[in-house]
Design a protein that fits this description.
The chain has a two-stranded antiparallel ribbon with strand order 1-2. The mean pLDDT is 93. 45% of the residues lie in helices and 16% in strands. The radius of gyration is 13 Å and the shape is globular. The chain is of the alpha+beta class. A hairpin with an 8-residue loop joins strand 1 and strand 2. The protein has one domain: secretion proteins EscU (name from scop). It has three helices and two strands.
């Protein structure tokens, strides 16, 4: 079953946190909304499985800080090029 997790980070909070998650048919709708609104999408099945158990508002676990930081850095660089 396909799953998705949406994250957000601001320097005003201690760590990135989950803003939403979905599975099944809802994933396709969320991906379409993200793409229609120029929201970056990164696929990482292992990271998604790790974060999927979290509820919206929960901070990501320290074990994945480095991976998520790399993703946010990649996205920031992409946005700077545009």
């Amino acid at each position: 079953m396909k799953k998705a997790v949406a994250l957000r980070y601001s320097t005003q909070v201690p760590a990135p946190f989950v803003v939403g998650n979905a599975s099944g048919a809802v994933v396709s709708r969320l991906l379409k909304i993200a793409l229609d609104n120029d929201i970056p999408v990164v696929e990482d099945d292992i990271l998604t499985e790790t974060l999927f158990i979290l509820n919206p508002g929960e901070y990501i676990p320290e074990e994945v800080y480095s991976i998520v930081a790399d993703i946010f850095i990649f996205i920031k660089k992409l946005q700077e090029v545009e």
